[in-house]
Each structure stands twice: as C-alpha cells, then as structure tokens.
Amino acid sequence: MPLKLVYFAWVRERVGKTEETVEVPAGTATVADLVRWLKTRGEEYEYAFENEGVVRAAIDHTHVKPDASLDGAREIAFFPPMTGG
Amino acid sequence: MPLKLVYFAWVRERVGKTEETVEVPAGTATVADLVRWLKTRGEEYEYAFENEGVVRAAIDHTHVKPDASLDGAREIAFFPPMTGG
Amino acid sequence: MIPSVRIQAEDFDIASEIAALSEGRADSGAVVTFTGLCRDEGGRLQALELEHYPGMAEAEIGRVVDEARGRWPLTGLTVIHRYGKIRPGQNIVLVVTASAHRRAAFEAAEFLMDYLKTRAPFWKREHLKDGTAGGWVEAKDEDDTALERWSRPDHPSRESSG
Amino acid sequence: MIPSVRIQAEDFDIASEIAALSEGRADSGAVVTFTGLCRDEGGRLQALELEHYPGMAEAEIGRVVDEARGRWPLTGLTVIHRYGKIRPGQNIVLVVTASAHRRAAFEAAEFLMDYLKTRAPFWKREHLKDGTAGGWVEAKDEDDTALERWSRPDHPSRESSG
C-alpha cells in the first residue's frame, strides 16, 4: 500500500525530508508497525525515532496513538510535541 | 462630632439626599449605632435602612462592617450592594 | 510596571490600551483583555446608567490592583471603568493584564473582574425602551460565590504555565 | 454565531477582530481576548520561527473550537495563529471569545489556549541575536497539566456568573 509520509520540525530535519511516498510491506497494520519499519530504512530514521514515545503522529490531519490502524490512511505525519500558541 | 454622610443609588433616593453633615449624639460609636440613630430621624431613613444587612457602608473610601468604629471618621457612605463591572 | 486605573465617562480604545502596556518592552508573552459590555436584554433596554462614588472608586480599584500585583507576576495592568449613560453594545469596563506566561494573565484578569463586580462602588440602573425608568440592577449571589474562590487555600494563584 | 479560524503569516488587529464579533449584535456582555506574544528572552532572542502543518492546523483548531462551543454558550469566537518569522514584541496567536456572561468567555479562552498549546500542529524554533540558529523550543510538561484540568469531572464548564 502506498502511503504519503510528512515530517515536521526536528523530525523533518533528522529524516532529511519534508515528505515522501512509501510502499510499506504487508503486515504493517499500525502506526507503531510503520515506525518500526521506517527505523530499518537507515540511520536518519533511527535517529528521528530514537526515543519511542516522543515523536507524535497524525493520520489524515487527526492526532493518533501508536496503536492506530493504518487502514484507509492517505497521509501520515510525524512530528515532535507541539509548541504553538 | 460632625460627620459627613453620603448616599448612593437607591439609598440616596430613599433618603432623598446626596449628602448631609450631621452632629451625632454622644455614644454613637460604630456604624451600626449611626444607622440606629439615623432611623430615628424620619420615615425616609427608616425606609432606606429597613433591611438591616442589605445596605453597605464605607468609612473614608474603605468598605467597613457594621461594627466598625467611627473614631476619626470624616466621611461615611451608605449604598446598596455594588453592581459595577 | 506602573498600573493604570481610570474612572471616566468617555469610551476607551482597547488597541491603544494594549499598545500602551507593551510600549518599549518585550518581556510579556501573554496579554489578556476583558471588556464588559452593555447588553440589550432581548431588546427591551434603552440604556444603563452607572452611578459611582468618586474617590472611593479609584481607591477601591487601586487596592484590588495592588492585591493582584502581589499575587501574580504581572508586566502590565490597566483597569478602566466608565460611568454615566451607556447604550447596548457599548463598553462599560476594561481590564488588561500582561505577564510572561498566560496563566498569570488569565487569572489576574478574572480576579480583577470578580473583585470589581462586588467591591467597586458602582451601581447600575436600567432605562427601558418603553420610556419607563427601570429599577436598579440587583447584585447577584453568584458574584459573591465567584469572589470566594479566590480565598480558597487550594486556589492556584501562582503562574504555572507558559 | 460562525466562529472564525485563520492560520496566516500576517499580523492581526485585535480591535477589528473584536469589532467583527460584536457587529450588529448586543447580546454579548463579555469579550475576552488572549494575545500570545514573542518574548525577547532577556534580550538574547532575535526571532522565533513558527513551522506549521497546513491543513491539519486548521482542522485541529476547528475541532477545539467545536468542543469549546459545545461547552460554553458563546456569542462569538475567533482564533488566529500566525506562522513564519516573528520578532520579540510581535503577536503570535489571538483568541477572542464573547458570551453573555464573563465566566463563559474567560473559561472558553483559557480552554482554547490550553488546547492550542498542546494540540495545534505548530513548532517554534529560536533564532538568536548572536547569529546562531537556536534549537527547537521544547514542549512543557506544565502545558499537559494545564490541559488535564479540563477533563476533571469537577471542572466548572458552565457559565456561573454575569
């Protein structure tokens, strides 16, 4: 399944990309699965996701937890805790 | 002792005066004593102070309770509960 | 920081009051304004008339302002209360608080309004559209309740968040 | 009441935002504004740079706005969040709430700010006066604590005072 991934703030800087479209392997069911797979793709991903639980995720513009299903997802975003306001 | 009395809102309307200077009898030691004496001065005062505890008082621009001493007071104000803001 | 307290018949301009607070300083991270307005009460109100006790109004608001400054680390504070005839939609009262962090600015503004409502010597009377002079507005018990929460020991009166 | 949510690079004008809320209605007795400003951090900050997630920023703030409208009887609501480079003393965020009574306006504005701080997809990075690009601003635990109080069962989320 092709998925658009977008990155923000220091997650973007560590990954070295603003966005990319990836073909995830079968069995990648949740956001946590996706992160696990991304970390196998290179040091930059390992670095970006080194502290599990720090990087937040959103599916199609909605905040989600690591156990959220990727079913029907079009755009997955990864970013640090927010500091707006 | 001569005292300046000032009245506001419906207390002013009931008393029928904005202010007056009175010579209070000896033994008038507190705000409550003053109110008691004022109520002997006529129906308008009886009406203004008919519900004890509703009319508030201030001595020299500071809120006080009925048992506050009149010692050194120059201006005593009587008014309903405040409704500003 | 020199707080500004004004009792006036004229209207006020919120933007210039905020600008005056921020003038020449960049240590405020949060500015809260509260504006109290005259409601039309479902269309029956022609105007509110605000009577006040000159001298005591300034003194009492000054005391409340001092109390707020002692409780919160404010970088700016302005209170303006109008008197006289005020029509629906017009301004009655303005409180502006500035602080490094938002919690202090919010709490100080709420505190000031709760105190002004019950301690500042102002009295409102209604003038109705049908030509009758309506009565004096009655004080609300809930305003006293609002006030009491500031003396509860568990009330968070220190800044807690940015 | 149609709430207004805007994500923009340009500055905003508080007075015209308040005026827009009040336009043609006199049922608001209380208007609260919160302005978040860029602090100079003791003089060492040259600017903040705000990155955001276009699309999600609008969507997430819209959800928080809907939640606020469900909790409080608001007569007006505006949220503006800027992005891009912002210098000390300049505006970052504006929340305006209007209601018949003050408690609702205050609480809704605080609620919105607590949620924006921790849920709106914006990230601040510092640029320092000495020319170095400072780091990304870290999220504060106390912002999460501020958020939690809105889910406590004893929190007064209904208007209680005029």
Can you walk me through this structure?
- The complex is a heterotetramer, with two copies of chain A (85 residues) and two copies of chain C (162 residues).
- By secondary structure, chain A is an alpha+beta fold.
- Helices cover 25% and strands 27% of the residues of chain A.
- Chain A is built from three helices and five strands; from the N terminus they run E-H-E-H-H-E-E-E.
- Chain A has helices at 9-15, 31-38, 43-48; strands spanning 2-7, 19-23, 56-59, 62-64, 75-79.
- Chain A has a five-stranded mixed β-sheet.
- The radius of gyration of chain A is 12 Å and the shape is globular.
- The model of chain A has no long low-confidence stretch (mean pLDDT 95).
- Chain C is α+β, with helices and mostly antiparallel strands.
- Chain C has four helices and eight strands.
- Chain C has helices at 14-22, 56-71, 102-119, 141-148; strands at residues 4-8, 30-37, 45-52, 74-82, 84-86, 91-99, 122-128, 133-136.
- In chain C, strand 7 (122-128) and strand 8 form a beta hairpin.
- In chain C, helix 2 (56-71) packs antiparallel against helix 3.
- The longest helix of chain C has 18 residues, at 102-119.
- Mean pLDDT of chain C is 90; it is low at 158-162.
- The interface between C and D is large, with 41 and 41 residues.
- Strand 2 of chain C pairs antiparallel with strand 2 (30-37) of chain D, so a sheet runs across the interface.
